[in-house]
Design brief:
With 224 residues, this protein is mainly α. The protein folds into two domains: 9-79, Arc Repressor Mutant, subunit A (Orthogonal Bundle), CATH 1.10.10.10; 94-198 and 207-224, Winged helix-like DNA-binding domain superfamily/Winged helix DNA-binding domain (Arc Repressor Mutant, subunit A). Helices cover 46% and strands 11% of the residues. The protein has helices spanning 3-7, 14-24, 31-38, 42-59, 81-91, 98-110, 115-122, 127-135, 157-163, 181-192; strands spanning 63-68, 71-76, 113-114, 139-144, 151-155. A hairpin with a 2-residue loop joins strand 1 and strand 2. Helix 3 packs across helix 4 (42-59) and helix 6 crosses helix 8.
Length: 224
Amino acid sequence: MTTEEVLAVPLAELRPALEAVLMVADQPLDTLALASAVGYPEGEVTAALTGLAAEYDEQGRGFELRNVAGGWRFYTRDEYAGVVEAFVLDGQQARLTQAALETLAVVAYQQPVSRARVSAIRGVNVDGVMRTLVNRGLVEEAGHDGEHGATLYRTTSYFLERIGVVSLEDLPELAPYLPGIEDMEEELAAAAHVPEAPAPDDVAGEPEAAAAPDTDTDPVEGTE
């Protein structure tokens, strides 16, 4: 099958397809990357991008499409900078969600760490939460993983300021907030519906001491 035959039945119209890809991009994309993503020749992609940029300018939209540093990306217009700034600063006053606090704690104790690693530890995708933490100035990029090239993240001085410590060495130890081995064994036994065997020294039939209640304390709970 030739290229012309493939393009004769495109999966989507070119301009909407480009808009969809650019909407989720977190960095400028060059025409080659965009052409590969939408399945059109690079020349047609360049023409479509130029047309979209002119169309947004003509319509006076609140955003514009720029070709910056060899890549295309959406930007808010300069004349609306005040509105955007007010919105962002207002959002800075809101408290972090539980998901954001958990993600921030992982970064604080594992840094420098990639988003993939944080996602693996938490068991959920953290891309959106990481963007929030970066926008709030609590987390920043810290280079790239030498093996995989993934972006690494670390906490900022603003993070230390907000939780009231001088350095990362002053962070609380994690051990008091982790379940003991006895608690973990009990939870595993309960999950498997397997009754626990009596302790070897439990000959008098006396009940074992109850496990200490979980503290459920988050070392960064007070972060705003």
